[in-house]
Design goal:
about 80% helix, 6 helices, mainly alpha
């Protein structure tokens, strides 16, 4: 069990290190890095390559941004297999609805509990 935590920490940390290096050494904005990571996860998930990362990295592979792209691609592929081409449009929404809902609800709760301010 402890190794699950260690592998998740290491694998998730590797994604964070890669993002930090890209921000420090390139002119890529955080938004472009975010989108790139989601797209990388979706592409690797579509070709079943990200499955190996999930086996090794556990939550460290499924929680960060590439994991979101992976979830989108897997859900869309599953839905296409079940209902056809329309599943390409509905699958990703169905597959990630729980995570998106949780992010919205918890973000709203944090905004209520803590006094958020915009950067000046």
């Amino acid at each position: 069990m402890i190794m699950n935590y260690v592998s998740a920490f290491i694998f998730g940390g590797i994604w964070c290190v890669i993002a930090q290096i890209l921000m420090d050494k390139t002119k890529l904005t955080p938004a472009r890095i975010l989108v790139s990571f989601v797209v990388i996860g979706a592409i690797l998930g579509a070709f079943n390559l990200y499955d190996y990362a999930v086996e090794v990295g556990k939550a460290g592979a499924t929680v960060p941004l590439p994991g979101f792209g992976y979830a989108l691609s897997k859900a869309a592929i599953k839905e296409v297999d079940e209902i056809g081409l329309l599943g390409a449009f509905t699958g990703g929404i169905k597959g990630t609805a729980g995570g998106i809902t949780a992010a919205i609800v918890f973000g709203y709760l944090m905004a209520i509990l803590f006094n958020p301010k915009t950067k000046e």
